[in-house]
């Protein structure tokens, strides 16, 4: 006999096992928090006054390559995260996608899938046929942790804000059926923005409709009541903060504004999930991007999101104000902040030059008449090295890299010529009539995670021109930085001696007891940082983020090593800071028109 679902509704009221109930949830993504900090962060959610935690499941994080089975161990152990939440007395809502948005690379879809000619997020069998085996592995793991089986999972989301993307109702129904057929018996729901357009595209008859919003809960409540008069008001995402893009300001949401909107949601029995309750970090190269008016807006490494629980777990003024609105009165179980290392200023030792170091790490090379895209190279994120040998006539000429995604550093016989971007794709090059070794270092800044540009390809997607003549005959090498081992880093560091102001550098420091710290690189331009072989993320002096959060579990007693890959100009020092620097703030509230 199948147990009835833990959550049900009737006459606009939500019930848990027949007792009136409000979902007071907070979003916390296990893939953005070090596993040894999962319990700490979950306890902080409980102290906030929440009874539920919700998380997305990013497919590409678990299965970055098609030829390998999905990973569910270590940092990928979704089941352990769910069990830990249950141990802390929290219900769990799981949002398995397959598309998750989340400001995560490619919206969670694997680039090996989006690199094909397939209609994404549709009932195209080429898409659903790829999702099905992923769900075959994932969904039974969630089903085994449902409340009916004694676990903490009380609800599962169908797709994710589909009404913001398309209107293929057959696809939404396919997702619902796929969850039920694989064992989901708890509450199923959809989540969309509170407009008729979005609700028409994303909702299903008989399936609870939830809203996503940043403000104006009153009109959203009224709209959903007219469309679903028997259903309770549930906000699956309340945006109490917002994420940041490189080169823009740090988005914040005022405490009074956030608390006022939260109060408006939960009044009269409304349910909510605070997005984000704790944002965490886009470690490695997992940060996504937006595209507006054809211009890429890459997301920063921090996913602090001005959440009530900060990126490093600190309890903010927003935490205490929200806790009061949520009615939490129990003593706090956690400290206001975890320990941090003392501030320090460390010299950076430049070890190897940029091109030589990247080419020192073995990788397969593909040859052909045109540049190979990241997708042709099997490269999800990182850098592609492209090399050709054109003859450039004597005099000044224009070199154009058409349709570059997202940036390329250009070298002639090892000498840097400059950077090309979609906005500025051309450089002047002076020829002597001789053959030139032309190198392009092509960098992805993050795959688009939202909107019609989802699934876009990376690399040089058009011809490279000298004046009007196409450069042909390319050697293309992937540099899969996110997959590099400690041995790969050592190979890159050993490619010296350095003669330029870019490439790899290291700094070392010793600690008696590991603790949190924040890394800053004053004087450096743009690049990546590893801590003890773990790729922490991207830094960039255009901000707004100027420090990288390094959680204590990444450090060890004794000697620790920070490795830097600098693409523009290497400064001389690495700073360990006691506070984050996320940039000048800008008040921001996302609203639907």
From TrEMBL:
One GO term of the biological process aspect: carbohydrate metabolic process
Record-linked PANTHER family: BETA-GALACTOSIDASE RELATED
Catalytic residues identified in the record: 161, 237
Family listed: Belongs to the glycosyl hydrolase 35 family.
Gene3D superfamilies according to UniProt: Galactose-binding domain-like, Glycosidases
UniProt GO molecular function: beta-galactosidase activity
Protein name: Beta-galactosidase
Beta-galactosidase galactose-binding domain location: 505-560
Enzyme class: hydrolase
Domain Glycoside hydrolase 35 catalytic: from-to ranges: 14-327
Alphabetical keyword list: Glycosidase, Hydrolase
The UniProt record lists the keyword Hydrolase: yes
Residues annotated as domain Beta-galactosidase 1-like first all-beta: 371-479
SUPFAM superfamilies with a match to the protein in the record: (Trans)glycosidases, Galactose-binding domain-like
Species annotation: Winogradskya consettensis
InterPro entries in the record: B-gal_1-like, BetaGal1-like_ABD1, BetaGal_gal-bd, Galactose-bd-like_sf, GH, Gly_Hdrlase_35_cat, Glyco_hydro_35_CS, Glycoside_Hdrlase_35
Pfam families: BetaGal_ABD_1, BetaGal_gal-bd, Glyco_hydro_35
E.C. number(s) listed in UniProt: 3.2.1.23
Reaction catalysis annotation: Hydrolysis of terminal non-reducing beta-D-galactose residues in beta-D-galactosides
PROSITE patterns given in the database record: GLYCOSYL_HYDROL_F35 (PS01182)
């Amino acid at each position: 006999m199948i147990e009835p679902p833990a959550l049900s509704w009737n006459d606009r009221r939500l019930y848990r096992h027949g007792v009136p109930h409000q979902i007071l949830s907070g979003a916390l993504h296990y893939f953005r928090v070090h596993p040894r900090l999962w319990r700490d962060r979950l306890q902080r959610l409980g102290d906030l006054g929440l009874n539920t935690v919700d998380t997305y499941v990013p497919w590409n994080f678990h299965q970055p390559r098609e030829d390998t089975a999905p990973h569910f161990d270590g940092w990928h152990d979704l089941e352990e995260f769910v069990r830990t939440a249950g141990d802390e007395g929290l219900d769990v809502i799981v949002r398995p996608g397959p598309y998750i948005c989340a400001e995560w690379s490619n919206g969670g879809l694997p680039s090996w899938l989006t690199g094909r000619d397939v209609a994404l997020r549709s009932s195209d069998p080429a898409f659903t046929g790829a999702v099905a085996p992923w769900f075959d592995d994932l969904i039974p793991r969630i089903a085994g942790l449902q409340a009916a089986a004694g676990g903490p999972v009380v609800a599962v989301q169908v797709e994710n804000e589909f009404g913001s993307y398309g209107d293929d109702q057959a696809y939404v129904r396919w997702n619902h059926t796929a969850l039920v057929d694989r064992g989901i018996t708890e509450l199923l729901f959809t989540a969309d923005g509170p407009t008729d357009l979005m609700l028409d595209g994303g909702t299903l008859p008989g399936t609870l409709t939830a809203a996503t919003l940043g403000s104006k809960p009153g009109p959203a409540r009224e709209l959903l009541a007219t469309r679903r008069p028997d259903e309770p008001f549930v906000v699956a995402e309340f945006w109490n903060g917002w994420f940041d893009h490189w080169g823009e300001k740090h988005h914040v949401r005022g405490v009074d504004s956030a608390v006022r909107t939260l109060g408006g949601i939960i009044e009269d029995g409304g349910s909510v999930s605070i997005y984000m309750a704790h944002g965490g970090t886009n470690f490695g190269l997992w940060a996504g991007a937006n595209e507006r008016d054809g211009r890429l807006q890459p997301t920063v490494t921090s996913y602090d999101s001005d959440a009530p629980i900060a990126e490093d777990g600190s309890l903010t003024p927003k935490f205490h104000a929200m806790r009061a609105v949520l009615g939490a009165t129990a003593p706090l179980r956690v400290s206001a902040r975890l320990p941090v290392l003392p501030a320090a200023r460390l010299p950076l030792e430049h070890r190897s030059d940029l091109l030589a170091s990247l080419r020192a790490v073995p990788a397969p090379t593909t040859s052909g008449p045109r540049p190979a895209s990241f997708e042709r190279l099997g490269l999800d994120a990182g850098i592609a090295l492209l090399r050709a040998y054109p003859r450039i006539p004597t005099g000044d000429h224009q070199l154009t890299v058409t349709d570059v995604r997202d940036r390329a550093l250009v070298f002639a016989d090892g000498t840097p010529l400059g950077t090309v971007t979609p906005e500025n794709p051309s450089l002047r090059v002076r020829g002597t009539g001789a053959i030139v070794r032309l190198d392009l270092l092509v960098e992805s800044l993050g795959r688009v995670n939202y909107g019609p540009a989802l699934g876009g390809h990376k690399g040089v997607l058009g011809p490279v021109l000298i004046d009007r003549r196409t450069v042909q005959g390319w050697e293309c090498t992937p540099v899969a930085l996110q997959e590099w081992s400690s041995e790969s880093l050592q190979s890159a560091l050993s490619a010296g001696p350095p003669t330029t102001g870019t490439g790899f550098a290291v700094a070392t420091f010793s600690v008696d007891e590991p603790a949190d710290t924040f890394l800053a690189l004053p004087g450096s331009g743009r690049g990546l940082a590893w801590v003890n072989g773990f790729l922490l993320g991207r830094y960039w002096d255009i901000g707004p983020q100027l420090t990288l959060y390094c959680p204590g579990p990444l450090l060890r007693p004794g000697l620790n090593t920070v490795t830097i890959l600098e693409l523009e100009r290497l400064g001389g020092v690495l700073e360990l800071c006691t506070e984050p620097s996320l940039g000048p703030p800008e008040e921001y509230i996302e609203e639907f028109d």
